[in-house]
Amino acid sequence: MATQRHFPHTRLFPSSEKTVVISGPHIQVLSSESGEILFSTLSLEDSVKDAVVKSGPIRCAAVDSSFTHLATAGDDKKLKVWEVEGLKLVNERELPKKPTQVAFTRNGKTILASDKFGDVFSYPLIPDPVSEPAKDGKPEELASHENPSGGRLILGHTSLLTAFTLSEDEKFVITADRDEHIRASWYPQGYCIESYCLGHKKFVSAIHIPTFAPDFLVSGGGDPALKVWDWKNGKLVYEIPVIDAVNPFIKVRVKKRKWREDDDDGEGGAEGKGDKKPRGKRGRGKKQQKAEEKGAENGDAEETPEATPDVDTPMQEPEQSEGTGREESVALDARSSETPGAAEPPSEPVFVLRRLASVEAAGQRLLVFSAVGSTALFWCQLPLFTGPADPPSIRTRDFGKPVLDFIVEADGRVWVLLDAEWNEADTEGWTASPFVASVQFLSDELVDVEPLTPLVATLNTRSRIPATAEAIAALELYESIASMPKLIDASHNPMNRDSNVEPSGGRGRQLRTSAKQMGKMKTRQAILQKTQGHSASASEERESKKARSDAGDARVDAMDDS
Asked: Which of 12-16, 168-172, 515-519, 533-537 has the weakest average pLDDT?
């Protein structure tokens, strides 16, 4: 008999009275004192509960400072606002693209949302009918896409926006993207840029302004060191090397992503691969359908084993999920190891910074951070104003299970969310582990909180929600390990459409050409031949005209001589 699995807790918002916990698509509100489950989406009406499950996992969430409203968003591109008391859905709005982060302003009246097209929009807590899109359907001129809910464009990047944060006085918004850029802009006049913080060599996945140093910014992503900035002036103050401390604890490995010609920062690449479906005849032009059918009848598609797909034609990913139609999670853990023929994990870990936080406890100014797929939490001293002579030493606390997220409270208490049912590949079942660990900073030491509170007990028992293996895989807990690093192959020239070898860093693999690809190749060849033929005929016509002109001149000369 298979062991019952559960959704891991992916987000936690504690307060003195209530605590909100998110698990997969579900939300629960618990009493912070007694641990009692006060409200849950599992207790809603069947129609509402079915809609919650159908919307898919919650990817982004935020609670306002008064703990009155909760904002959530997911791959269904719906921004939902809930009342924490009673867990009532206040309103729901459509986002233009898949979100990467949501946040409330300090007064709780505005919600900011970033998306995979690199834009940041603001939305009022309660939609204003006057602000709805105009009937003429004219899109926002400065936005990279339309906003169906009348959101106000704050700013935009030309790459997938990975993180943003507001300054302490909320006069600036700092944004980071997958292309190593960090920008400080005015808020809400995002078109006014205050500074750039440039120097990262790889993607930036997390940024943080320390509570005790609002003029400083800490950033990190795929680089081997965290960077501390004077963000208003765009000046790098110093770096904190972390890779040697983090790598030994990165236990989750991923299948190496295959090169895709449509790999970009939008929703068609790895970030949106869950929705990527092979296109059939529907949605394509009639001429293209006829060309493909004609190519298939001639047997060209099957008889030509070597060719490269067109630039806008994606290559198929290696495996598909049978249960949901989605591509399998990239993590090579106990879940994916059940799939026959799973690829061997790479020997080298991939560093992706998950979250940054800071706390001032017992006179110690500490920087706390985690990495995707790592089983440990990391922290160090955070020197300010001048670069340290020696980098601060990195301290660690290993929890034995991947750290999904953590929350640091002002008093130094830390809530650590764990993937409790994860296990390394080639092992069966999983070892016992809490879903949530509660620890406390004493000076610069991280110690267990004893005894366990009723809230911690509930988070590890009664608040666990049963889930299928397919539903857990759909969470894509470690997808960023594969999607954040960009695929760079010096031997690959994306402008060379005549190449017939897939860039794979080695010998390459021959590709079979589809009917669509063959049709495009034939079209290009026909255009080329027509162009060359036109040039040749034009040249012949010029020569003919020149010959007739010479003959005419000769006749005129002969008449003059007579």
From this structure: 533-537
Residue 44 is encoded by which pair of tokens?
A: 């809603």
Token pair 């009493």: residue: 31
CB crowding 505-533: b at 16 or more within 10 Å, else e = eeeeeebebbbbbbbbbeeeeeeeeeeee
Q: Which residue has the higher pLDDT, 288 or 102?
A: 102
* pLDDT (mean) for 528-536: 64
**Helix (H) or strand (E) run with residue 312 in it:** none
Query: In this structure, are residues 264 and 108 in contact, taking their beta carbons and an 8 Å threshold?
Result: no
CA nearest neighbour of 179 among 265, 266, 258? 265
How confident is the model over 198-230, as pLDDT tens digits? Answer: 999 999 999 999 999 999 999 999 999 999 999
Across the range 347-360, mean pLDDT stands at: 93
Report the Cα 262 to chain-centroid distance in Å: 16
- What does the domain layout of the chain look like in residue ranges? 5-253+346-483
394: DSSP letter: P
Residues 346-382: b if buried by 16+ CB within 10 A, e if exposed: eeebbbbbbbbbbbbbeebbbbbbbbbbbbbbbbbbb
| pTM for the model | 0.75
CATH topology of domain 5-253+346-483: Methylamine Dehydrogenase; Chain H (2.130.10)
From the list 523, 544, 525, 543, the residue with the least C-alpha distance to 533 is 525
Q: Is the dihedral of CA 477, 481, 484, 487 positive or negative?
A: negative
Residue 296, C-beta contacts closer than 8 angstroms, at least 6 positions apart = 515
For the stretch 59-91, pLDDT in tens is 999 999 999 999 999 999 999 999 999 999 999
Side by side, the strands of the sheet bearing 193-196 are: 161-166, 172-177, 182-186, 193-196
CB 13 within 8 A of CB 19: yes
Query: Closest Cα to residue 226, out of 214, 234, 217?
Result: 217
Q: CA nearest 81: which of 48, 111, 113, 121?
A: 111
C-alpha to C-alpha distance for 424 and 513, rounded to whole angstroms: 38
Report the distance separating Cα 222 and Cα 480, nearest Å. Answer: 11
For residue 280, the SS3 value is coil
What is the DSSP code string of 182-223?
A: EEEEESS-TTSEEEE----SS-EEEEE--TT-TTEEEEEESS
